[in-house]
Structures are given as structure tokens and as C-alpha cells.
């Protein structure tokens, strides 16, 4: 990799035209042929660049450019198009080259495969009596992330996402429709599990009779002690189930610990079952049903005072 700090102006010529006026910038020339122009801001994103495959030629400036103080012109031509990056260098401040070798690549942590492995190992997070049938259960339209059996012997199809949106609910719906055609499996229940589930996805899942489970990745891999968290913060401990009033549908909800701001905004009395010092520790309050978010309204009753 070649690093150059220089006062330069930059012009991109191709499907569109772009111009960077004269300023001090960092120029990166990588071994794959790419050239990137960086400033001292803008985080990781370059101001302009040429993607590989490309060829860099350093030429003498035209006479009119030399009169303006240009000492060197970089012409970066893309190999598969007419796109061209022209860098006019007025002053070289630093130049160095470094051999970085072969990079092993980025190893990601917390991807869907990690969530799938951990949930398969801790299948009882779904509830008592759950057992694993298999991971990546193949169907004609794709693999179901986890196939399990609940305490009553019913088959459960689980779709896992890092961030759960409506597309994931639609995907699980297609799996359930197909699996329920098999008389040896039907009825098959669906569980949509993710680290974060968008409100629209949760509403759609509930409407289709699909349970939602919010996963705490750090707690699942044993690097976060849930019981030692501060009581004054909103915390997703583990998904639990509650019955939606008037519908009789079992809907998993988050256990909730409120902050002082929540109490001031929503008001109300102390959560039942909490007395004395436990009131200050738990900080859950009696809900005003019309003002509170739905998941708080349903989760504040009928569970132990201190999670």
C-alpha cells in the first residue's frame, strides 16, 4: 500500500463529473489497483475513489496546469469503462509504501449462524419442555433455521434474524404453510426470534399467530450477567408469554424494568407484589392502559416483582 499526503485537486470524469478543490488530502493506492482520496473527516468513507481494476499513470502536468502550480498529475483509468480519476498534485508532504501481506479477512461475531447455534444449545429459552429436532431443516422452499418440539409434543418452526422485520415474518409464514400440509407434522407453530424485532413485524406476527422472542446475545453466550443489571434501565431479560386481552392469543412479551423517566411520563401506582424496599429496586409501576406502550401494559402484571 502506498500512502501519500499532498495538496491536490481531484476531478472524476465518466458517467458523472465531480470536482474536489485544492486542499490537503490523503491518497491511498492499494495493491489491487484501487485509488482512494481521503480527508481528515468523514469517518471511513473516501471523498472520491476509483475501484479496481484500474491503472495509475503519473505524468507531467500540462503547461497551463504547471503555471498554476501543479507539479504532478495522476491519471487513474478504469480498465472496463471510460471512467477516469485525475489528481493534480501541487505539493507532496509525505510518501511511503508498506507491504501489508495477505489479510485473513473479517471474522464477524453475532451473525445469524451464531444465534442459531446458541439457541439450539439453549432451546429451553423457548419454554420448559422444549427439545431440538434439528437445525437447518430443509424444505422445498428453503431451510427452516430451527425445528423443535414443545412440551406438548407439537412441532415448532423457528426463524432467526439479527434484526427482525416484516420480510422475516413473511418468510416464516411460507414455511408454516408448507409444513402444515404434512399430516405427520401438523399443526406446526411458528416462533420469530431476533435480537431486535420491529414493531410492524411484531404486529404482523401476532396477527398470524406467530410468537415473537427477543434474544439477548451477550446473555446467551455467557458474557453478561442479566441478574446484576441496574434496575433503573429498560432491559430485555427473556421473552415470556402473556394473553392479549380480548383475543385469547398467546403473545410473547418482554419483561420490563422502568426508569424514573418512564414513571414520570406514565405515572400510576406501584406494581402489585412489590412492597417496601422492593418498590425502589423494581421500579415497576401500575400502568395507565391508554398511555403505556402495549408491551409494557401486558408485561407488568402477573410476573415476579424483581426479575
Structural features, described:
The structure is a single chain. By secondary structure, the protein is α+β, with helices and mostly antiparallel strands. The protein has a domain at 2-97: Protein Yojf, Chain: A, CATH 2.70.180.20. The protein is built from 8 helices and 14 strands. The chain has helices at 63-67, 112-121, 166-179, 199-207, 217-220, 260-266, 277-282, 294-299; strands spanning 2-13, 18-29, 35-38, 48-50, 54-59, 72-78, 84-97, 131-139, 142-149, 155-164, 188-197, 211-214, 239-243, 250-254. The strands form 3 sheets. Strands 4-3-2-1-7-6-5 form a 7-stranded antiparallel β-sheet, with no helix packed on it. A 5-stranded mixed β-sheet has the order 8-9-10-11-12, with helices on both faces. Strand 11, helix 4 and strand 12 (211-214) form a beta-alpha-beta unit. The radius of gyration is 29 Å and the shape is elongated. The two termini are 53 Å apart. Residues 232-307 have low confidence and may be disordered.
Amino acid at each position: 500500500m502506498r500512502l501519500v499526503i499532498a495538496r491536490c485537486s481531484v476531478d472524476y470524469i465518466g458517467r458523472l463529473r465531480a470536482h474536489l478543490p485544492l486542499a490537503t488530502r490523503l491518497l491511498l493506492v492499494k495493491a489491487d489497483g484501487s485509488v482512494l482520496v481521503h480527508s481528515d473527516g468523514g469517518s471511513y468513507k473516501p471523498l472520491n475513489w476509483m475501484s479496481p481494476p484500474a491503472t495509475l499513470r503519473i505524468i507531467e502536468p500540462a503547461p497551463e496546469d504547471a503555471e498554476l502550480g501543479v507539479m504532478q498529475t495522476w491519471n487513474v483509468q478504469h480498465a472496463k469503462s471510460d471512467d477516469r480519476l485525475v489528481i493534480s498534485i501541487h505539493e507532496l508532504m509525505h510518501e511511503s509504501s508498506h507491504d501489508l501481506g495477505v489479510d485473513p479477512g473479517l471474522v464477524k461475531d453475532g451473525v445469524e449462524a451464531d444465534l442459531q447455534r446458541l439457541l439450539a444449545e439453549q432451546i429451553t429459552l423457548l419454554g420448559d419442555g422444549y427439545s431440538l429436532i434439528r437445525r437447518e431443516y430443509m424444505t422445498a422452499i428453503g431451510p427452516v433455521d430451527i425445528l423443535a418440539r414443545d412440551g406438548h409434543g407439537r412441532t415448532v418452526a423457528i426463524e432467526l434474524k439479527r434484526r427482525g422485520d416484516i420480510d422475516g415474518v413473511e418468510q416464516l409464514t411460507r414455511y408454516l404453510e408448507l409444513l402444515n400440509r404434512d399430516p405427520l407434522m401438523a399443526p406446526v407453530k411458528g416462533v420469530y426470534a431476533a435480537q431486535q424485532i420491529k414493531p410492524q413485524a411484531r404486529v404482523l406476527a401476532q396477527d398470524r399467530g406467530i410468537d415473537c422472542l427477543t434474544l439477548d446475545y451477550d446473555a446467551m453466550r455467557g458474557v453478561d450477567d442479566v441478574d446484576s443489571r441496574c434496575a433503573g434501565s429498560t432491559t430485555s431479560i427473556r421473552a415470556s408469554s402473556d394473553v392479549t386481552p380480548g383475543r385469547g392469543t398467546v403473545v410473547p412479551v418482554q419483561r420490563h424494568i422502568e426508569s424514573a423517566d418512564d414513571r414520570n411520563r406514565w405515572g400510576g401506582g406501584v406494581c402489585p407484589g412489590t412492597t417496601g424496599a422492593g418498590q425502589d429496586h423494581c421500579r415497576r409501576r401500575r400502568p395507565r392502559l391508554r398511555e403505556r406502550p402495549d408491551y409494557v401494559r401486558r408485561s407488568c402484571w402477573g410476573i415476579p416483582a424483581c426479575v
